[in-house]
TrEMBL record:
PANTHER family: GLYCOSYLTRANSFERASE, GLYCOSYLTRANSFERASE FAMILY 61 PROTEIN. Pfam families: Glyco_transf_61. Pathway: Glycan metabolism. The chain crosses the membrane at residues 36-55. It is found in: Golgi apparatus membrane. GO terms for molecular function: pentosyltransferase activity. This is Glycosyltransferase 61 catalytic domain-containing protein. It is a single-pass type II membrane protein.
Length: 517
């Protein structure tokens, strides 16, 4: 027998030729097997990761399997169904971000409702919160081994909408019940067992109300939702009442910017969802307003614009590597209304704007002319100035660039103060350069319906006072629905010239490729 010597890791090992041959053969076999094993493991990892990413809502079993798979891979899976990878835990959560709220210091395992605001009620639940689809309730369970809570024996009921004073619409908002679990429910292991366990608190909102109107979509819906939950930095699960696929599709970008988790259809999802807390309802500050003094983190309307930019702006605004652009003229958009409060001489107004030095675009509005919000954002955000008659479509001013862009609102006869409050004040708070063009009698179509000395057109303020409780009928049916406008081109030219003179220097300071023509 011939003995061969082999050195491995600095040691001399004696083996015979037969053993060498056997070792070589075995090594080849093991290498082949290990190659197969590595390929199998790699494919398994890919399959598990795909399951984590693309199967987030296939029911309770999938939730459990995903958790086990994530643990195997070393990933931390948010119990809201999201693989978070290297992100840290949510930690202690302050549910109520409102300064001076009675619920800002609520204890653990409790329910607190703030009903002091004229516009909205908001309730908070701290602890083990579970949904009960049959009764449209959120139940608060005691911690493991703890006794049933006694701090919330009374059942709270809330319709989560920011127009609680408006009985006409509020009556159609679903009512949600909040209560502590009864002792027999807490004692039973099978009572409201969690089908889906989330690691982020719930935010209950409604997709109902005046959701067909762009002003109300933002004023009543998404701005209040942002006010209420922005401090949670997307670690909140939206539970929607009156959910529809069209609502989720149209506002999907804002929903994704508000929450990193899937929206839960609270009326149709019969599973028991469990949360470490819940917020039911949303805060409201004023018309399209963010009051920093009422928020612990002092956010402003500019921060809400940043939220919209995060949702819709796909392109960086300052790219030093991009090729230098040719000088351009200022861009102006005209909101073109249909039906009522129409600019009857719109084509002539566009010509005047062009002669002043703007590149003019006309934004068509009305039924059947509703582009995706992402397209509207992209168009309006590119404008240096936006012009329009008072109306819901003017809510698009939220997409303008704070600090450099201008808003010119045409205020029809009889609604000058309303126009300023609804759009002028919030535009100024957002850092836009606002100018209001108050209509004169000869520019209103009402001059063709009423004599010049009729109180309706001669003194709209007195006309409203004379109507008493029916004053709003006069505003709605005469000043809002019964009026078109025809602008005095000479006077409006002066308005546009002022806006251009101010904006061109601001925009040029921000971006040096603006033409002074």
């Amino acid at each position: 027998m011939v003995v061969a010597s082999s050195k491995v890791s600095g040691l001399d090992i004696a083996v015979d030729d037969d053993d060498v041959h056997a070792v070589k053969t075995t090594t080849k076999q093991l290498g082949s097997r290990w190659t197969f094993a590595r390929a199998f493991v790699a494919l398994s990892v890919v399959a598990v990761v795909c399951t984590l990413l693309y199967a987030p809502r296939l029911g309770p079993r999938i939730e459990q399997q995903r958790g086990a798979a994530a643990a195997f891979l070393g990933l931390r899976v948010g119990r809201s169904g999201v693989a978070d990878g290297d992100e840290g835990g949510i930690g202690p959560v302050v549910l109520d971000n409102q300064v001076g709220s009675p619920c800002s210091t609520m204890p653990e395992n409790s329910i607190c409702c703030d009903r002091s605001d004229y516009h909205s009620d908001v309730c908070f639940m701290s602890g083990d919160v579970r949904t009960d689809a049959k009764s449209l309730s959120l139940l608060l369970f005691p911690p493991p081994g703890g006794a049933a809570t006694t701090t919330a024996a009374k059942e709270e009921r809330i319709r989560p909408y920011t127009r609680k004073w408006d009985a006409f619409v509020t009556k159609d908002i679903h009512e949600v019940r909040l209560r502590a679990a009864r002792p027999e429910e807490s004692a039973s292991p099978s009572s409201h067992r969690c089908d889906v366990r989330h690691d982020a608190p719930a935010l209950v909102v409604t997709a109902g109300g005046y959701s067909h109107n762009m002003f109300h979509v933002f004023n009543d819906g998404f701005l209040p939702a942002w006010l209420t939950a922005q401090h949670l930095r997307r670690r909140v699960v939206v539970l929607a009442l009156a959910y529809t696929p069209s609502w989720a599709g149209r506002f999907g970008e804002m929903l994704a910017a508000l929450s990193r988790y899937h929206v839960v259809d609270l009326l149709r999802d019969t599973r028991t969802h469990c949360f470490p807390g819940a917020i039911v309802g949303t805060r409201y500050h004023d018309y399209l307003a963010v009051d920093p003094a009422r928020l612990r983190d002092n956010k402003t309307a500019v921060d809400f614009h940043k939220f919209l930019a995060a949702a819709y702006d796909d392109e960086p605004r300052h790219d030093e590597t991009a090729p230098r652009q040719q000088p351009r003229r200022l861009r102006l958009g005209i909101v073109s209304r249909k039906g009522r409060r129409v600019i009857e001489n719109q084509a002539a107004v566009a010509d005047v704007a062009a002669s002043v030095g703007f590149d003019v675009s006309v934004m068509e509005t009305g039924r059947g002319r509703t582009p995706p919000l992402a397209a509207t954002y992209a168009a309006v955000n590119a404008y240096d100035a936006l012009v329009g008659v008072h109306g819901a479509d003017l809510t698009a001013f939220l997409f303008l660039r704070p600090g450099t862009a201008a808003l010119v609102q045409v205020a029809p006869l009889g609604i000058k103060l309303l126009s300023r409050n609804l759009f002028g004040v919030p535009a100024a708070r957002m850092g836009l350069h606002y100018e209001q063009y108050d209509l004169r009698l000869n520019e209103s179509s009402l001059s063709r319906k009423y004599a010049p000395d009729d109180v309706v057109v001669a003194d709209p303020g007195r006309a409203r006072l004379e109507r008493g409780k029916k004053a709003w009928d006069l505003v709605e049916y005469v000043y809002l629905r019964g009026q078109n406008v025809s602008l005095d081109l000479g006077r409006f030219r002066e308005t546009l010239t002022r806006r251009k003179s101010e904006v061109v220097h601001l925009v040029k300071a921000d971006c040096d490729n603006i033409s002074m023509d």
